[in-house]
Amino acid sequence: MEKINVLYISIEGNTKNFIKNLSEYAKNEHDQDEQKPVINAKEISEQTDFSNETDNFFAFVPTYLDGGNGIDNGVKELMTNVLGEYIHYNNNARKCIGVVGSGNRNFNEQYCLTARRYAKAFNCDLVADFELRGTSRDVTRVYEALMNEASKH
């Protein structure tokens, strides 16, 4: 496995920052051991032209809700919908092999709710999560989780 493909959306820069740190970590790991994959990241935004994904990928999605608590009175996703639409486009969902969620633990049950919903919708696992911008320990843990899950596909 030479690379791990990642699609992500970043609203406030937290996910983008995490992906940057994850990519740097993966490059350092690859430089020390060429068997370890690098990260190939693609940001999805309102300006992204939809295309057909030809390789397996992981989706990184934060949780932003506007109304409802996601538990007993519904949920209204906010701002991350374009990533879901991109994954739903043509056969892209078949290439989604896992989801990584982020959020704020202060929101309790809503923490990573969007990622859990994506995993269910795209019939794949929630492979990891991190809070806000994540820590260096999160970067290592998520990288290991991605490698483990990718090796199954």
Automatic annotation (TrEMBL):
- Which organism encodes this protein? Apilactobacillus xinyiensis
Question: Which Gene3D superfamilies does the entry link to?
Answer: 3.40.50.360
Q: What is this protein called?
A: Class Ib ribonucleoside-diphosphate reductase assembly flavoprotein NrdI
Q: Which domain of life is it from?
A: Bacteria
Pfam families assigned: Flavodoxin_NdrI
Output the InterPro entries linked to this UniProt entry.
Flavodoxin/NO_synth, Flavoprotein-like_sf, RNR_NrdI
Domain Flavodoxin-like: residue ranges: 4-153
What NCBIfam families does this protein's entry cite?
Answer: PRK02551.1
